[in-house]
Amino acid sequence: YKVPKRPFESARLDQELKLAGEYGLRNKREIYRVGLTLSKIRRAARDLLTRPEKDARRLFEGNALIRRLIRVGVLDESKAKLDYVLGLKIEDFLERRLQTQVFKLGLARSIHHARVLIRQRHIRVGKQIVNIPSFMVRLDSQKHIDFALTSPYGGGRAGRVKRKSLKAAENKDAGGEEDEE
């Protein structure tokens, strides 16, 4: 990624702050990283658009690029043209992050809670536990996002504090019965 040429441009700073807050990003680097991905994709699309309509490379690479973007869920299937690739925004990619998807599915109370759940290994995609909030969720994997089987949220063993309080309650009950005799 590259940092912006002008570090204190207020319009850009405001937009970055809004994005970081809305998608629960840790720092500006996460925005710049997505921006780099987007710029590479757009550059490839621009390069392909300069070629003639029936050019073999444009047809082959263009279809591959579009298919990849549709599979990730960034591009809609109704907009399967190179012209629409140039219209993509950073928000389209941020929407496909695991952190955003966990929040949108209602597994987390907030976007920040979603990030914590992911980092603490409570979330799985399919059978695989994923602990990277920036994981790009494909369209076919989206319906398989759920709590991990080992997580207390997913029916696994209760957490440390819960176990301790249950044990204390058992001891209290056992102690209370002995006093009555």
Fold blueprint:
Elements: H1 10-22, H2 28-50, H3 56-72, H4 82-85, H5 90-94, H6 98-104, H7 111-119, E1 123-125, E2 128-129, E3 145-147, H8 160-180
Helix pairs in contact: 2-3, 6-7
What does this structure look like?
There is one protein chain. The chain is mainly alpha-helical and 181 residues long. The protein has 8 helices and 3 strands. Strands 2-1-3 form a 3-stranded antiparallel β-sheet, with no helix packed on it. Strand 1 (123-125) and strand 2 (128-129) form a beta hairpin. Helix 2 runs antiparallel to helix 3 and helix 6 (98-104) crosses helix 7. The radius of gyration is 23 Å and the shape is elongated. The protein starts with 9 loop residues before the first helix and ends with a helix. The mean pLDDT is 95.
Short recap of the structure:
This protein has 181 residues and is mainly α. 55% of the residues lie in helices and 4% in strands. It has a 3-stranded antiparallel beta sheet with strand order 2-1-3, with no helix packed on it.
Task: Sum up the structure in keywords.
single chain; mainly alpha; 181 residues; 8 helices
Structural class: mainly alpha
Number of separate strands: 3
What's the order of the H and E elements? HHHHHHHEEEH
Strand coverage percent: under 5%
Mean pLDDT, all residues: 95
**Separate helix tally:** 8
Rg: 23 Å
Uncertain stretches: none
Major sheet summary line: 3 strands, antiparallel
How would you describe the shape?
elongated
Helix content: 40-55%
